[in-house]
Amino acid sequence: MDSTRDLLVALAGRYAFSDLGALTSDSEVAEVCEFGHRLLSLDAEDFAAEARGVPAGLRRRARACHMPQTPREQPRGALESLRPAYGLLLEVIAVRWHRRELSPMIAAVHIAGEYLPLVAFEAHLGHAGDPARWPEGLSAPGSRFGVIGDRECDHTKSEQSATNRTLRVAAEPAEGWRAYFDRQHSQVAGALGVCVAACRNPCTAMDWIEPEVRADLQARARTALAFAETPLVRLRHAAPVGHGFGVPSPEEVLDAWERSRAVLDKNSVGTAALKDDGFPLPGLPSLFSAIAAADIQPATLLRDVSEHITALLGRG
Predict the structure, then answer these.
(1) Spatial contact of 208 and 180, defined as CB atoms under 8 Å apart
(2) Which of 39, 93, 241, 315 is 20 to 30 A removed from 68 (C-alpha atoms)?
(3) What is the pTM of this model?
């Protein structure tokens, strides 16, 4: 009995929630394991799924990272603020690194890169890119934002389609809302970054932000766009090797990150990546914080789930 419990406790300590859930006969432990596995897998659609056996505090923190599944769902979770979600992303990246699960780790890095421009915009929008709350200024007279086929706009065709959709998706049924988030919201994040930091033919889309404030946002958004093109993020698109897909080694990941830090070290925002903040990829939390203009540190949500499971296993 003790050896079995020791094994389960060890699995909890390694965040091996799926394995632990399959082995336990305790329904409460199994439910918490399923909850932890969703978090580790970044299954943001289901973070708010009913889990009565999970303490309310843990469920509340998970809901802060949840992506609403309907236009009117409350609370707004990751559409209210992306900072809790980025804290979870950092915690997942660290856990995957320590478990040497480098493919899912790089996938988490890639997700972080896709939405990073919205992290930069959050302080100015008052939310994290909620399509139900876009500022009217995005569609001001003279704005090309969301105009399909405008050749003066620097957005790609897919970005023009996504920005056009984001301005009206809040009036669509739940199915359309979910399809938009599955396929287009990350493109809107990149398109906003282009608007403020990389457009060669600026329109009036960003005039709702005061020029002095816009200059600061421009530097943070430019760094967010640059992160998405770094050698580290590009590991996500490694070419097939042999009969499978190439999985980077820890040395390759660290080398790619060092080259990425050199690429990012172009301004006071990107320089934050050079900080040695104790993270497995040193400087990554500092970089995210600089882009957000707010402190973003690795969450402790997975750790707290693990500790709760361990306490449940110690009952009796």
Answers:
(1) no
(2) 93
(3) 0.95
Beta carbons of 235 and 108 less than 8 angstroms apart:
no
Q: Measured between alpha carbons, how far is 124 from 161 in angstroms, rounded to an integer?
A: 24
Residue 239 has pLDDT above 80, yes or no: no
Cβ–Cβ under 8 Å, residues 23 and 263 = no
Q: Where are the alpha helices (DSSP H) in the chain?
A: 2-13, 17-23, 27-40, 56-63, 83-98, 102-125, 157-166, 174-183, 185-197, 211-227, 231-234, 250-264, 284-292, 301-313
Tell me whether the omega of the peptide bond preceding residue 141 falls within 30 degrees of 0, making it cis. no
Q: Is residue 242 predicted with pLDDT exceeding 60?
A: no
* Rg of the chain in Å (alpha carbons): 21
Question: Residue 245 pLDDT more than 60?
Answer: no
The answer to whether residues 98 and 279 touch, using CB atoms and an 8 Å cutoff, is no
Q: What are the two backbone dihedrals, phi and then psi, of residue 71, each rounded to the nearest 5 degrees?
A: -60, -25
